[in-house]
């Protein structure tokens, strides 16, 4: 049986259980598990180790317990929004150079420990919404947030290219979807996907998985 690991922040976490690995939350991890598990009975085991609020440095701190020790055959990682958001809100983010450095260290150490592991990197994303709109006191908040998330996305893509990993583009996909319905239909607060947003991530995830 092959093992699939979902790793990331709240977008991946989605209320997953800390006691029962069978409950992977309510987001794209569940949708992927449902489809792959249905189409391939008893062929895959699924772990979700996403943790709400995590930055790249937090994932790196968990590399042994929540990645290497699980010995997955496949892993996807979606991280980067909190590296920006935490800087804007509480001055505790991760700048783009450190983001790239730690991300690279993470990938290199994982590949050294698990050379057969196939890794997919998901692009961090955002849309203007109730949680990311400009305010009177911070008129440039949205522009700063959007531009900085795009920088983390560019770094994530560069790392995928550097190490020959599959990169899943999501920002353009969400912006295209925003032409069909309001932003909050896809990302409730500009960051966290609705059920429909998670469905899109699932579809892109499965497309990429077939390339591995």
Task: Tell me the radius of gyration.
Answer: 16 Å
* Helix percent band: 40-55%
Residues in β-strands, percent: 5-15%
Low-confidence stretches: none
Shape: globular
Average pLDDT number: 95
Structural class of the secondary elements? alpha/beta
Total domain count: 1
> Under CATH, the topology is which?
Rossmann fold
For the largest beta-sheet, the strand count, sense and barrel status come to: 5 strands, parallel
CATH C-level category: Alpha Beta
Instruction: Give the SSE string.
Output: EHHEHHEHHEHEHHH
Number of DSSP strands?
A: 5
What does this structure look like?
There is one protein chain. By secondary structure, the protein is α/β, with parallel strands linked by helices. It has a single domain (2-209), classed as SGNH hydrolase (Rossmann fold). The protein has helices at residues 10-13, 28-39, 56-61, 63-66, 81-90, 96-113, 141-162, 171-177, 183-186, 195-209, and strands at residues 2-8, 44-48, 74-78, 118-122, 166-168. The protein has a five-stranded parallel sheet with strand order 2-1-3-4-5, with helices on both faces. α2 (28-39) packs across α10 (195-209), α5 (81-90) runs antiparallel to α7 and α6 (96-113) runs parallel beside α7 (141-162). The chain is globular. The model has no long low-confidence stretch (mean pLDDT 95).
Topology:
Elements: E1 2-8, H1 10-13, H2 28-39, E2 44-48, H3 56-61, H4 63-66, E3 74-78, H5 81-90, H6 96-113, E4 118-122, H7 141-162, E5 166-168, H8 171-177, H9 183-186, H10 195-209
Parallel strand pairs: 1-2, 1-3, 3-4, 4-5
Helix pairs in contact: 2-10, 5-7, 6-7
């Amino acid at each position: 049986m092959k093992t699939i690991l979902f790793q990331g922040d709240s977008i991946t976490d989605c209320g997953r259980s800390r006691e029962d690995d069978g409950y992977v939350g309510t987001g794209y991890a569940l949708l992927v598990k449902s489809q792959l598990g249905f189409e391939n009975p008893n062929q895959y085991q699924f772990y979700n180790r996403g943790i709400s609020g995590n930055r790249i440095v937090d994932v790196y701190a968990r590399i042994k317990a929540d990645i290497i020790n699980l010995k997955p055959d496949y892993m996807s990682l979606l991280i980067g929004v909190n590296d920006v958001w935490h800087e804007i809100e509480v001055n505790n983010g991760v700048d783009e150079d450190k983001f790239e450095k730690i991300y690279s260290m993470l990938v290199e150490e994982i590949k050294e420990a698990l050379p057969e592991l196939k890794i997919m990197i998901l692009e961090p994303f955002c849309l203007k919404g109730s949680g990311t709109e400009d305010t009177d006191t911070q008129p440039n908040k949205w522009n700063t947030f959007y531009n900085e998330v795009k920088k983390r996305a560019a770094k994530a893509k560069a790392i995928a290219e550097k190490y020959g990993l599959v990169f899943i583009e999501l920002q353009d996909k969400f912006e295209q979807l925003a032409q069909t319905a309001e932003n909050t239909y896809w990302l409730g607060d500009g960051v966290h996907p609705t059920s429909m947003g998670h469905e899109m991530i699932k579809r892109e995830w499965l497309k990429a998985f077939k390339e591995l």
